[in-house]
Amino acid sequence: GNSVTQMEGPVTLSEEAFLTINCTYTATGYPSLFWYVQYPGEGLQLLLKATKADDKGSNKGFEATYRKETTSFHLEKGSVQVSDSAVYFCALSDSNQAGTALIFGKGTTLSVSS
Amino acid sequence: GAGVSQSPSNKVTEKGKDVELRCDPISGHTALYWYRQSLGQGLEFLIYFQGNSAPDKSGLPSDRFSAERTGGSVSTLTIQRTQQEDSAVYLCASSRGEKETQYFGPGTRLLVL
Fold this sequence. Notes:
heterodimer, A: mainly beta, four-stranded antiparallel sheet, globular, B: seven-stranded mixed sheet
């Protein structure tokens, strides 16, 4: 079945460091891929998405590229800020099926210090 | 505009009691999803509605769990005879259509004592 694997956390960085959070997936069909973020005390928010191979999603300085050949969707940011501290979830949905639920990775906690 | 809202935000109940959790989706969103977020299991899908019908109930963990949606809007998730393992954050999401981006509510934190 479909699944998402993302790197274990926590990830601890200093402000302005480069961030990579790895995400790989297993899917039949042609999934859409997402990164959601959960800030402390808040709900899940969509950060970025990509719906087909080689698409790059980007938002708030974060970006991720849909790599079909490596079944990956790694999240990157060139210079993190303290305000980026949150839990990041990689997810997929199977675009071939109507109303398919999102399948999430376990989440990666990012802590950025000044 | 208004996002997805859920109530209550927190619920503490005793083992064996029934609980009802409510979700108000974004106005005009036809698809509605329930998920559960727990420490041990991460984020799990529970049930999906398109309009008032639930074509996918595959994630409901047991027959103690049920959900309904009325008027193509508000949804209620009911857990009967709650157990301690039901303790989790229950998240609701809605989307404009079946393949559209899902927007999440703040969740209901359920604690079963």
